[in-house]
Each structure stands twice: as C-alpha cells, then as structure tokens.
Amino acid sequence: MKRFFLLxxxxxxxxxxxxxxxxxxxxxxxxxxxKWSGSASLDIGLIKNTQxxxxxxxxxxxQYNTRKNLYLFINDLKLEQIEDNSFVNKGIQHIRxxxxxxxxxxxxxFAQSQYDAISDIKFRGLLGLGPRFKxxxxxxxxxxxxxxxxxxxxxxxxxxxxxxRDFRGSVYFSCSLxxxxxxxxxxxxxxxxxxKQFSDFRISNQTSLGIKVLKNLLFKTSFTYNFDxxxxxxxxxxxxxxxxxxxxxxx
Length: 251
Fold this sequence. Notes:
Blueprint: E1 12-14, E2 36-48, E3 52-65, E4 69-82, E5 88-100, E6 105-116, E7 121-134, E8 141-156, E9 164-180, E10 183-194, E11 197-214, E12 217-228, E13 238-250
Antiparallel strand pairs: 1-13, 2-3, 2-13, 3-4, 4-5, 5-6, 6-7, 7-8, 8-9, 9-10, 10-11, 11-12, 12-13
C-alpha cells in the first residue's frame, strides 16, 4: 500500500436515512494490477428546514486483489444530531471474500454487523455465501448477477420484540458503466426475501455517478432507495438518501 490519507468535504446531503443493505458493488474497485486499493472519507453535513440536523460520516474501504482472490473490507460510521438531542449512532462493518472459479463465475462469502438507532436496530448480523456471475466481458460496460443465501440475526432496541434468527435469500443485479474515461455510473438492485415467508422482503437500489476531477479525486452523486416490507414496529417501510461528495481513492 503506497499511501493512506483522505479528507472528504460533503457538498450537500438531502434526507438522512441510512441504507440498511450495503451496496458492495459501488465500493468494489476495478483493479487487475494493484493488489491493494481503497478509499476513505469524512463527510460533514448541516441541514436547516423545520429542524436543525448535523451529521458526521466516516467511511473506509480496503480491497486486496489477486488473480484468484479478492478481499473487501468496509467500515461505515455515522453520527447524527437533531436539534439539541444527543448524537445517534449508526454503523456497518462488512467483510467479503471472492474466489474466482472461472472467467465468468466467482464464489462469494461475506459477514456483516450493523447497528442503527433510528431504525431501532440494536444489532443485525449476517452471514452469507453464493455464486456471482459476470454477464459481460467489456471493460467499459460490466454487468453482474449474484444469488446468495444468508443467515440473519436481528435484535431490536425494544426488549419486548423477539430476536429474529432466520434465513434470507439475496439476489442482486449490478451494472458498472464507463462511457468516458472520467465518468462512471454504477447501479445495483438487491432483492432479499425471508425464505419461509416471501411476503417479508427488502428491496434496495443505489445508483452512483462519479466524475473524476483529478487523478485520485472523484466527485460523486449517489441516490439510495430502501424498502422493507416488514420493518421493526414504528419504522417507515420506505427510506431514501441523496448525497453529493468528493472522494479520494488510492492504489
């Protein structure tokens, strides 16, 4: 790893909900030659409408890539304060391993931990595995399909709500488009049903537009949409977030 330094200033942020499904595709870095790569950010946002909202977000992504193996680590932490209320903590830690089987097929294994006070999630743990298919060979237009089996453990901050332990499926479709050398568009949609009850499902989409302004500096706009058919009581089914920022990457 040649270097590790980043400062990101958030240009603006609209709405403040937190993605409950991690869009790993937007965080993968296409790197066939560099073993180490990654990015880090420190975002600061201030919104004034009917309430004053202040938030700090710190994100770190590290990727180690070889011809056969890929290791990906993601750490997202977020602090939010509304009016004079105390800071609210949110966070996700995600580890993923890819093993190349053929040119078009990889095996994925991942583990994730999450907490989110606003969504009343004291702890959510996921373990999953499954195949990942490359649907195209073009370097400028990449399409992927993944089908995973996950075990989920979820605890609410409300002790009267039972702990959830069950299996979910996870199907995702992702496209990474590079129409110009300095422009990238990544969009991923996830569908995650409870295997014993398909009416209990989650849908998430994140679409990110990146414009390279310098060699390692990227201006990025992202829109995230989440729908949970059966959220914890009192939590809305639909959440979304629009953010703009500047990201520094290294390899």
